[in-house]
Write a structure and sequence with these properties.
The complex is a heterodimer of chains A (212) and B (270). With 212 residues, chain A is mainly alpha-helical. Helices cover 75% and strands 0% of the residues of chain A. By secondary structure, chain B is an alpha/beta fold. Chain B has nine helices and eleven strands. In chain B, strands 1, 4, 5, 6, 7, 8, 9, 10 and 11 form a nine-stranded mixed β-sheet that branches. In chain B, strands 2-3 form a two-stranded antiparallel ribbon. In chain B, strand 2 and strand 3 form a beta hairpin. In chain B, helix 1 packs antiparallel against helix 2. Chain B is elongated, with a radius of gyration of 26 Å. The chains are: A mainly alpha (212), B alpha/beta (270).
C-alpha cells in the first residue's frame, strides 16, 4: 500500500515536471492590455470574466441560481412552528443601520457600474448589496424586513435578471458585439442576481430549524 | 513587505479567533481575519479578489454568524400563562417560575425567551426540539415523555362540582387523567372556567391553584370539591437536553437548600 502511494506520488510529480518543462507548447495569448482594450475595459479581469470566458461566467450564474432554488425548496420542510419574536430593537443598531444603509447601497452600485474600469464587478457588488440587506435584518428582524421589501416580487426580479443576463450574453456570444456598455449592463444584472440571491438564501436559513 | 506583514496579521487573527471562549469574540476575530486576508490580496496585486474577499468574508459571513448567534444563544421556554406562576405583565414576564427561569438563564449565561402556547402543545414542542423548557403550572403526566425537574410548588388535583352534568378538564393537563368516560376537554383554563360558568359542564378536574383562583374571582360559585391526589408543579425539559435537565435540578436543589424557594413560594403563592 505504501509502495503504491509512493509510486502514484512519483507519477504525479513527474506529470507536474513534464507540465512545467515546456514540452507542451503554450497557447498563444495576446497581451492582457490588448484583450481589455478589445472589450472596452480598463480592468483586465472584467474583460476576461465577461468577455473571453463568458461561458464560464454564465454557468457560474446558473449554479448560483440553482443553489438558491435548492435552498428554498429544501428548507421549506424545516420551518419553525412558532414564529420567533423579533429581538428588541436597540437604538444604537437601528441608528447605525439607518446611517450606513445609503452609503453601502451607493457603494454597491458604484462597484457594479465601474467594474470594467477598476477593481470590482457584479459579484462583489452583489455581495455588498446582500450585506446591506443583512444589516437591516439585524436591526429590524428578518421576517419584518422580508415583508417590507416584498420578497416574492424581489425573487421574480432576480429570475428576470437571470433571464436578462442570459439574453444579453447569448446575443453577444452569437452576434459578437463588444463594448463597455455591455460590460456595465452585465455587471449590474449580476449584482442584482447575487444580492437578491444572498438575501433569499439567508432568509431561508434564518427562518428554518437548525437540524437538516 | 506589505504582503508579509498582512500574512502575519492573518495568522495572528486566526489564532485569536480560535482561542476565544466567547463566540461573539470568535466571530469578530474571523471577520478581522478576512479583512487582513483582503489586505494580503491587495498587496499581491489582486484588487478584484481583495474586494470580493472583503465583501463576502468580512461583510456577509460575519453578519450571518451574528444572526445565527442571536438565534441560538438562548433558552426557549414554552409555557401556559398561569398567574401567579408565570404570566405576562405589560411588556414583561413575571411570576414565581419567571424568577427561577431568569436566574437559571443568568446562571447558564443565556437569554431566556418565553413563547405562550397551550398545555397540549408543550410536550410536542419539547420533543420536536423547538424549545428547551416547558413551564407555566406544568403538572407532569406519564404520556408526556419529557424530562421532569424537581418539584417547585406542591398542589392537589381536585374535582369541583357545581351542577349535575359531564366533567371537564384542560386537554393534556393532569386533570384529564381523572375524567370519567363522560368528558369534555378545553384548550386552556380560561375556556374551562367560562364553560363551567355557562353551565356547559357540571364540574371540572383541575389543580387547586386554578380552582382557588376561580372561586376567589367569583367565576364559579363556592362548591363541593373532592380530592384526587397530591402532586407538584414542575418544569419540563426537552428529552434531548440532558445537560440542561441536570443543571436545572442542581440549581433548584440549591434554591431549596438555602430556603430561597420556600421564600418565593410564600411571596407568590401564599
Amino acid at each position: 500500500m505504501k509502495a503504491l502511494a509512493a509510486l502514484s506520488l512519483l507519477v504525479l510529480m513527474g506529470l507536474l515536471a513534464v507540465g512545467v518543462s515546456g514540452v507542451f507548447p503554450r497557447p498563444a495569448v495576446p497581451p492582457a492590455e490588448d484583450v481589455a482594450a478589445e472589450w472596452g475595459a480598463k480592468n483586465v479581469v472584467a474583460a476576461i470574466v465577461l468577455g473571453v470566458r463568458l461561458w464560464d461566467t454564465l454557468f457560474e450564474i446558473l449554479v448560483y441560481a440553482m443553489t438558491m432554488v435548492g435552498v428554498k425548496l429544501g428548507l421549506r420542510l424545516l420551518r419553525w412552528e412558532h414564529a420567533i419574536p423579533p429581538v428588541r430593537e436597540t437604538p444604537l443598531l437601528r441608528r447605525s443601520a439607518d446611517l450606513l444603509l445609503g452609503p453601502i447601497v451607493v457603494f454597491a452600485l458604484y462597484v457594479a457600474v465601474s467594474g470594467h474600469l477598476g477593481p470590482g464587478g457584479g459579484f462583489p457588488a452583489g455581495a455588498i448589496l446582500g450585506t446591506a440587506l443583512l444589516l437591516l435584518a439585524l436591526a429590524k428582524g428578518v421576517e419584518r424586513l422580508s415583508a417590507e421589501i416584498h420578497e416574492p416580487s424581489l425573487e421574480w426580479a432576480e429570475y428576470g435578471a437571470i433571464v436578462a443576463i442570459l439574453a444579453v450574453a447569448g446575443g453577444l456570444l452569437l452576434v459578437g458585439v463588444r463594448g463597455s456598455g455591455y460590460l456595465i449592463a452585465a455587471n449590474v444584472l449580476i449584482a442584482l442576481e447575487v444580492g437578491i440571491g444572498a438575501w433569499v438564501v439567508l432568509h431561508r436559513f434564518a427562518s428554518s430549524r437548525g437540524e437538516v | 513587505m506589505g504582503a508579509i506583514l498582512f500574512s502575519a496579521l492573518t495568522l495572528a487573527l486566526a489564532v485569536f479567533a480560535l482561542t476565544q471562549r466567547r463566540l461573539l469574540w470568535g466571530v469578530i476575530g474571523v471577520g478581522a481575519h478576512s479583512l487582513a486576508l483582503a489586505g494580503v490580496y491587495l498587496f499581491l496585486a489582486a484588487p478584484d479578489v481583495a474586494l470580493t474577499q472583503a465583501a463576502i468574508g468580512f461583510g456577509l459571513v460575519t453578519f450571518i454568524y451574528l444572526l445565527a448567534l442571536r438565534r441560538t444563544g438562548k433558552l426557549t421556554v414554552v409555557a401556559v400563562e398561569t398567574p401567579p406562576l408565570l404570566h405576562q405583565e405589560g411588556q414583561r414576564v413575571a411570576g414565581l417560575e419567571w424568577e427561577i427561569l431568569s436566574r437559571f438563564g443568568r446562571h447558564l449565561h443565556q437569554d431566556v425567551e418565553v413563547l405562550w402556547v397551550t398545555r397540549a402543545e408543550i410536550p410536542r414542542l419539547l420533543r420536536a426540539g423547538e424549545a428547551d423548557i416547558g413551564a407555566g403550572g406544568f403538572l407532569p403526566r406519564s404520556e408526556d415523555r419529557v424530562l421532569i425537574s424537581r418539584p417547585l410548588v406542591p398542589t392537589r388535583i381536585v374535582t369541583v362540582r357545581c351542577a349535575p352534568g359531564p366533567l371537564g378538564a384542560v386537554a393534556g393537563d393532569r386533570g384529564e387523567d381523572h375524567l370519567p368516560a363522560d368528558r369534555a376537554t378545553y384548550e386552556d383554563h380560561r375556556e374551562l372556567a367560562s364553560a363551567l360558568g355557562a353551565g356547559e359542564v357540571g364540574g371540572a378536574v383541575a389543580d387547586l391553584l386554578h380552582v382557588r383562583q376561580w372561586i376567589l374571582s367569583g367565576e364559579i360559585p363556592p362548591v363541593e370539591t373532592t380530592d384526587h391526589e397530591e402532586t407538584s408543579f414542575r418544569l419540563a425539559v426537552a428529552p434531548g437536553e440532558e445537560d440542561v435537565h441536570q443543571a436545572l435540578d442542581a440549581f433548584l436543589a440549591k434554591l431549596e437548600a438555602n430556603g430561597e424557594l420556600a421564600q418565593l413560594v410564600r411571596r407568590y403563592v401564599g
